[in-house]
């Protein structure tokens, strides 16, 4: 009996962290799973649409009074963000960076100790996770935030942009 209890407890320790990192649910938003490529689209209050790679690890860390997410934590893979102008502040936090916006289309990718942010429409403010080294990205520009490396705004080449957006079926 004792072995069964220990086994059940260990099973919960394995299952619970995986559920928290799942890209399949996001508090306050409705989700739709899409294929080719596999991803999840979240329709959130206030005109916020998040499109996450199927294996992306993300979660809501702050909300407005209407239930609209105002801050999302992303710890792996990529997310495409589309937020309607005038819908209020919104930011993505990663282990390396903060990307804050007020109405635009952009992507945030977390991989191999680097956060990459690319702006398709509008402007996005990006800083290190501690708020330092803040830069503003305009449409067509991106930045890679890596600990110990300078935060440099660059115009991304067509191939890099195409490869990133193809992960969202675009």
Automatic annotation (TrEMBL):
Domain FecR protein intervals: 39-124
- UniProt-listed Pfam families: FecR
Which InterPro entries does the annotation name? FecR
Q: Which UniProt keywords apply?
A: Signal
Signal peptide feature range? 1-23
Can you say what this protein is called? FecR protein
Residue ranges the record marks as coiled coil: none
UniProt-listed PANTHER family? FECR PROTEIN DOMAIN-CONTAINING PROTEIN, LIPL45-RELATED LIPOPROTEIN-RELATED
What domain of life does the native source organism fall in? Answer: Bacteria
């Amino acid at each position: 009996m004792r072995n069964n209890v220990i086994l059940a407890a260990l099973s919960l320790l394995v299952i619970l962290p995986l559920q928290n990192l799942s890209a399949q649910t996001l508090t306050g938003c409705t989700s739709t799973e899409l294929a080719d490529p596999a991803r999840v689209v979240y329709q959130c209050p206030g005109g916020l649409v998040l499109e996450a790679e199927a294996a992306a690890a993300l979660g809501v860390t702050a909300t407005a009074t209407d239930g609209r997410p105002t801050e999302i934590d992303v710890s792996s893979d990529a997310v495409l963000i589309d937020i309607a102008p005038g819908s209020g502040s919104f930011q993505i936090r990663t282990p390396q960076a903060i990307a804050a916006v007020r109405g635009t289309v952009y992507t945030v990718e977390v991989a191999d100790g680097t956060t990459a942010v690319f702006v398709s429409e509008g402007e996005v403010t990006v800083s290190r996770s501690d708020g330092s080294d803040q830069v503003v990205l305009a449409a067509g520009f991106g930045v890679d935030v890596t600990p110990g490396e300078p935060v440099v705004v660059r115009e991304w080449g067509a191939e890099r942009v195409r490869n990133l957006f193809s992960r969202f079926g675009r």
